[in-house]
Amino acid sequence: MAPTTEDVKLAPEEGEKKIEDVGEKREGSDSELEANAIDFDGPEARRILSKVDYRLVPVLALLYLVAFIDRSNIGNARVAGLTTDLNMKGLQYNTAVTLFFVPYTLLEVPSNIVLKLMRPSHWIAILMFSWGLVMTLMSLTSSYGGLLAGRFFLGVTESGFFPAATFLLTLWYRRYEVQRRMAVFYVAASLSGAFSGLLAFAIQKLDGRSGLEGWQWIFLIEGLVPIALALIIWKVLPDSPETASFLTQTERDFLVRRLAEETGSGHGRVTNQDKMGKKFVIAGISDWKVWAAVVVFWGNTVGVYGFTATVPTVISQLGYSAANAQLLTIPIYVFASIMTIIFAWWSDHIQTRSPFIVAGFVIAACGFIAQLAIPHPKYPGLTYGFLFPVAGGLYCPFIILVSWIGNSLAPSSKRAVGMALLISVGNMGGIMGSNIYLDREKPKYRTGFGVSLGMCCGAIVMTFVLRWAYARENRKREALFAEHGEGEIRARYSDQEMLELGDKSPFFKYTL
């Protein structure tokens, strides 16, 4: 049929659109070709990763520093007179510390599901503003009941940050790159103990100003910081390689490609672009290896949360003033930070996880044994000295475990749920840790040190169980690959089915 007049008029516009489409396609193809030409381990790759490092890791580290200070500053507030002013007795302080973990543990998995459904930067900004507001309002507390309410809602609002931040890092780095970045991020938790002590030492000097006690000033000032950060973080924090405005299209394509090919075996692909669905939620919750890792996690949280909330009191009971006790916590956490960084870089360098987890808990166990053996407070210097291996040994295996489980879960929706489950149930150890350092046992804390020692031993045993399970699965897949070959295995699945298999794919190799 001959073209009508109307068809002829439309033809030039259609022709222009086709040319534009072809141009866009060619541009996209050019960027993909350029991305494919970049060596994964070459200088150009390192330059691109450096851009990501400077934009992402310091921001997350700062946010976690603020978060950990806000959740643990109750220990500093206690030394500054919180329990005296609120007429707290017996186990009431332990109850206040514990209450934080109830909503904190219950809401982490739902939070990461929300994270996958919206932009991470926006969700994290909402969380930060919320917990900052709660912390600020806690400065107005005038009763024990008010303190309990504040701790509960602090747990609600902080619950999503750590699983969101650790999951976000796995969207940017390969399995033997993510841990050293995660360590820099997590070391903020170790340094928070030092900063919290230093800040508390300075803030206490405001005691009596404007009718507020020293502990009220601690809550007020340390609550306003996350509120201020929340107002800018939604714009600064990048969401994913696919949408990063600070990268060129070629750089974005390169990051997406190198992550897609990171299965550990050199074959197959994985994806971070899967949509959250019921089957991935079930897969993340039902993986028994995540639950086994929870036991290892408890080895950390039981000791860390009890230790963090109690160490200023332990030191003060050795004969030091309250102000000096705050300052003397600083070297302990600096030492823990250094150990965390060393272990993380070493573990990434030799591409293994489990031996470093075991080593950390062995060091912590030695510290706990020493604390139980030393006749407190007869040797204050010796007691103080053995707080260093306790902190260092507890902090350094934690991020290795989180990285290990993050390395072992795919696709990203299952990883989001599995990592959140690990962190949420694992943080229930904080409930135990908050109640085993009994006020009537100070400064010996035999129950606290003894239970923490037992949990370290349990974590060591379960680490060996996990390593055995992952190694056995790797051997099965290697045997399957040797028997049938890549082509025959690929023929059994479509590309989409293979991506959705994630860590169950025959091409996926677990980290040991």
From TrEMBL:
Residues 1-34 are annotated as: Disordered. It is found in: Membrane. Its main location: membrane. Keywords: Membrane, Transmembrane, Transmembrane helix, Transport. GO terms for cellular component: membrane. The keyword DNA-binding does not apply. The chain crosses the membrane at residues 52-70, 90-109, 121-140, 152-172, 184-203, 215-237, 288-307, 327-347, 354-374, 386-405, 417-437, 449-470. GO terms for molecular function: transmembrane transporter activity. Residues 1-29 have a biased composition (Basic and acidic residues). It is a multi-pass membrane protein. PROSITE patterns: MFS (PS50850). Residues 56-475 form the Major facilitator superfamily (MFS) profile domain. PANTHER family: NICOTINIC ACID TRANSPORTER TNA1, PUTATIVE (AFU_ORTHOLOGUE AFUA_3G03820)-RELATED, PERMEASE-RELATED. This is MFS general substrate transporter.
